[in-house]
Inverse folding.
């Protein structure tokens, strides 16, 4: 709840900044002759179809199109990748399919597997039945049972240079990632402009970081937030005459205003990652592009994790930004998501646990698109900018304007 164009050639070579994906995986044969169990559940504002063994995104989208159903979101879980996509209704099926498949293939060398489809609650019962029937008989995909393993995105030469600037080290609490790297850059896919927020982080056991000490009834949210002080200083949805500006006058649109969005991660499903897409009660002046983890204790030390959010452009060419990680109360009775996490805002973490850790403070005037890096042992974050010493070392996409 909390809370740059010579790109085309660059991004075709490297959509994720220097993430290296292990190619070792074990295929699980698809049992295409067996029907798939598809369950149906309804709650205010949505109807969800849960697909027992998952289906390939192309098969899911084809079934949706043939059933003439309005999809609010596809949720991915399988092949070591969790994520979701709100398909852009102004784009074709081929665009939305290619967007998700291209992003996940380039980052993780996997294909997206649909585990849930959320449809509008106004969808007629016959259309829902037709979709359910088609999903039941959709081919089961070939899956890999190994997690996506990422390696250090910064070369050893860069790490050595970074070590040379350490002075008075900052102590990052042990339950939070001890190293964070953030990349905010424009992306172009099939002629469409997108805004990408890439977060890479790790809990380094060598400095005492340990996610397993996270209390079981507390979650974690991490990411980049942009700001616009010209917008009225109130809390959503009470932004008055700035109601529309509070969603569009940033480097990217908000989750709410973006016609379509995509989020992906290699965080395992047992940690319950989710998009922090419910921005009600956030500041009207802030645009949070964060992802959450319902059960951080199920993460692993010394493992590189990637969180990606892609949104539509906003009306600003750049925005001041901050980056942080926070604890929030897990108030969910079911699967953690943005609607139920952090409802108890007055609750304080157990003794010894810090609630918030800033990687880049707002008052440092970090402006995106650009990149930043913070680690246990640095006294302040390192910023990458055109011509700067860490620009090429971090493979930070080129900023223009």
């Amino acid at each position: 709840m909390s809370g740059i164009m010579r790109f085309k050639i660059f991004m075709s070579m490297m959509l994720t900044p220097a993430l290296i994906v292990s190619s070792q995986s074990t295929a699980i044969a698809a049992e295409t002759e067996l029907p798939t169990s598809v369950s149906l559940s309804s709650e205010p504002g949505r109807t969800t179809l849960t697909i027992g063994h998952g289906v390939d995104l192309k098969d899911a989208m084809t079934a949706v199109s043939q059933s003439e159903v309005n999809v609010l979101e596809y949720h991915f879980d399988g092949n070591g990748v969790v994520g979701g996509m709100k398909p852009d209704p102004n784009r074709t099926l081929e665009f939305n399919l290619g967007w998700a498949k291209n992003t996940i293939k380039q980052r993780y060398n996997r294909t997206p597997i649909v585990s849930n489809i959320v449809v509008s609650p106004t969808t007629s019962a016959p259309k829902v039945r037709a979709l359910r029937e088609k999903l039941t008989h959709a081919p089961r995909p070939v899956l890999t049972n190994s997690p996506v393993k990422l390696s250090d995105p910064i070369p050893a030469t860069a790490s050595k240079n970074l070590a040379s600037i350490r002075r008075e080290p900052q102590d990052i609490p042990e339950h939070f990632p001890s190293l964070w790297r953030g990349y905010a850059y424009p992306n172009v896919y099939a002629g469409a402009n997108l805004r990408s927020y890439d977060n890479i982080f790790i809990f380094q056991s060598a400095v005492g970081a340990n996610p397993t000490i996270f209390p079981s009834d507390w979650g974690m949210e991490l990411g980049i937030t942009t700001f616009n002080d010209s917008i009225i200083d109130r809390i959503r949805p009470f932004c008055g005459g700035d109601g529309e500006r509070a969603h569009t006058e940033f480097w990217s649109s908000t989750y709410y205003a973006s016609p379509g969005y995509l989020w992906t991660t290699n965080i395992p499903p047992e940690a319950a990652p989710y998009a922090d897409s419910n921005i009600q009660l956030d500041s009207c002046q802030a645009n949070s592009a964060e992802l959450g983890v319902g059960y951080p204790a199920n993460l692993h030390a010394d493992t590189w994790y990637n969180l990606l959010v892609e949104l539509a452009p906003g009306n600003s060419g750049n925005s001041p930004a901050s980056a942080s990680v926070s604890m929030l109360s897990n108030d969910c009775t079911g699967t953690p998501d943005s609607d139920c996490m952090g409802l108890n805002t007055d609750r304080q973490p157990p003794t010894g646990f810090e609630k918030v850790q800033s990687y880049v403070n707002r008052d440092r005037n970090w402006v995106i698109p650009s990149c930043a890096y913070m680690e246990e042992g640095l006294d302040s974050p390192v910023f990458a900018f055109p011509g700067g010493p860490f620009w090429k070392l971090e493979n930070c996409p080129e900023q223009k304007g």
Observations:
- Residues 3-18, 23-33 have pLDDT under 50 and may be disordered.
- Helices lie at 8-13, 57-67, 93-108, 125-136, 156-163, 245-248.
